[in-house]
Amino acid sequence: MRWVIALVALYCIFLQPAWSEDWPSYGLNPEETRFSNLTDINLDNIGRLGFAWSFENFVVRGRTHRGNEATPLMVAGTLYFSGPWSVVYALDARTGTLIWQYDPDVAGQAARSACCDVISRGVAYTNDRIIAATFDGYLVSLNAQTGTPVWRTDTFTDRSRNYSITGAPRIAGDLVLIGNSGGEFGVRGYVSAYHILDGSLAWRFYTVPGVEPDISDVSKMMRNSWSINTDWSYAGGGTVWDSIVYDTEMGRVYIGVGNGSPWPAWERSPGGGDNLFLSSLVALDAKTGAYIWHYQTTPADSWDYTATQQITLAHLAEGNSHVPVLIQAPKNGYFYVIDRRNGRLISAEPYTKVTWSKGIDPDTKRPILNEEAIYSGKPGLVRPAHMGGHNWQPMAYNPDAQVVFLPVLEEALEYQGYEKDRYKAGEIRVKARVKQPSSETSPLLGDYGEGVPHSVLKAWDVALQKEVWSSDPMPWWAGGVLATAGGLVFQGGADGYLRAYNAEDGTLVAALDTGSAIMAAPITYRLDGEQYIAVLAGFGGGAKTFPSGSAPLQFENRERLLVFKLDGKQIPKPPSRAATTSRTSHSQTSFDFRLASRGQKLFSDHCSRCHAFKGVPANIPSLWSMPPELYDTLESIVLRGSMSYAGMPMFADSLDSEDIKAIREYLLFDLYRERKKQH
Ligand SMILES: O=C(O)c1cc(C(=O)O)c2c(n1)C(=O)C(=O)c1cc(C(=O)O)[nH]c1-2
Ligand SMILES: [Ca+2]
């Protein structure tokens, strides 16, 4: 008996992975499980969790606070993370003292290419280097001790298109991999691998065909899945904007590919076709980038059903053998288990209510399309909605229990085709719009429409492909997840709570009110014998307006890093939110109604993708509550970029002086009308 214990002890000392106390990569380990083996904080003492310290000194431009989506890294006592505008921070992980900060000075104009805020999901660490990707497309290697740049390389192939980067780079041996974003603007997706040593390009893989002739069998295979009438001025889409995973066992990387440009397949590729590799998982040789296999989750996608969501590597029993699998819950509502060796679909089951499809055909392994989801010539009511049943918010996987803890979005929206296609560089090019189900369509949802939108956390048995438990509903757009061997699952919420659940049965065991909406995933680390939980807070990203029940309706939306430990203190909250009322003392009293009505349309086409409509609370400043003098300087702001540093880009390529007069007329007329009503 004693030698068994000794062996176990030896195992613990020597075979414990090196990352047991650090958090050295985006998903904790190469498999990206986000399951930590730390147990100091556990089910018995979770009630004692409290506040340790916070870091609040983020680079903020102008009045606009942005979202925080990064997963911090903790390596040898230092925390590394990226915030809005791709600024990288290195902090003492015990105290929160800033060690260095690297600001890549992303041009404010780059915000023009943001579908979903100027955010960043994190950095990579390897051999005393921090590798960061900037929103405007550069990959930078920094000395981890000092933050001094070692090399910097431009990852964009075509700067006339609206590419951006929000995803975290991933390390694969001596290479670093990075994709990009812009699927909503008309770009051609690709992933690039660079040598860590000097930043030189090792390989690049395009996810959709280009305009050049096809030389390889893979590009011919892709091409054959697109119509010959494809309008390549949209460039196809297929951005690799989030998940890339390195399989150390097989020397491969798996990439998750995004939606097409434009969204409706019938507009994109008239005449049909699956449009490879949109909405697909693709396996590539890590050293060369050569194609190995793919599995397309949503053939001919028309709903922004990206397959960019987190990919986690696992092993599952199948008969008598152990199969290396990858698991993913993409936006489209199905949970996939795929054989890593060959891309074979092992199983797929809906993790939320799904209306666009009636299941996966067991023979063809393809989804069975529900024709009602097609919105050509009529609205299509679809669940999940375009933000997905699951978005970028990371999930966690306990490999022993074979259970995933998944942040799920419950939402249904109505899609409509949108003729607008006045192609100006820098405009959203999706040719579709989404709206709340109308009185005409919502009865069609039946019980599929109940209580949406909201968030839930689900425990999902990967082997059985079924739900184990589900949390109570939370405000929409809840955060990423961390699971620990202490029997706990952590998740932040838009309502500002950091919650801990009993992993086995989903009982809520702690709920700490931080006053700050949390979208990012928590991490945990251990230093000097003390376990910490750290999470970035701050609302933004693809969620533009503050959801009902969310913290920023009550407290100022601020970027924060919050760190917790046992027997901590009371959590300080941000200041109460200043009331934002429509107000101006502008003196204009007579209006040109035709001009104002044109302005309303221009606002909707160009401004509303960032600025919310009147009365809707959001973190991008409202155009209904500007200081009066700004209404008279709109032209210099919009056409000459006088506020571009703050992230209000120049629109001289798509709007002119007459347009600005119209937008101004609309806003001032609306404010005047309101003032009249009040008197
Ligand atoms: O197609 C794309 O290139 C692309 C990029 C991004 C991004 O990089 O943030 C998002 C999306 N799509 C997207 O569809 C989406 O729902 C989304 C949410 C968020 C976010 O940060 O909250 N980004 C993105
Ligand atoms: Ca997208």
From TrEMBL:
EC number assigned by the record = 1.1.2.-
Give the UniProt keywords, A-Z. Calcium, Disulfide bond, Heme, Iron, Metal-binding, Oxidoreductase, PQQ, Signal
* Record-linked SUPFAM superfamilies: Cytochrome c, Quinoprotein alcohol dehydrogenase-like
Which cofactors does this gene product need? Answer: pyrroloquinoline quinone; Ca(2+)
List the InterPro entries hit by this protein, alphabetically: Cyt_c-like_dom, Cyt_c-like_dom_sf, PQQ_b-propeller_rpt, PQQ_MeOH/EtOH_DH, PQQ_rpt_dom, Quinoprotein_ADH-like_sf
Q: What class of enzyme is it?
A: oxidoreductase
**Record keywords: Mitochondrion included?**
no
Give the superkingdom in one word: Bacteria
Molecular function (GO) terms for this protein are:
oxidoreductase activity
Q: Where is the Cytochrome c domain?
A: 594-671
Under the heading SMART domains, the entry gives: PQQ
Task: Give the family this protein belongs to, as stated in its UniProt record.
Answer: Belongs to the bacterial PQQ dehydrogenase family.
Q: What PANTHER family would the database entry show?
A: QUINOPROTEIN ALCOHOL DEHYDROGENASE (CYTOCHROME C) (PTHR32303)
Designated name of the protein: PQQ-dependent dehydrogenase, methanol/ethanol family
Q: Which organism is it from?
A: Kordiimonas pumila
Q: What is the lineage of its organism?
A: Bacteria, Pseudomonadati, Pseudomonadota, Alphaproteobacteria, Kordiimonadales
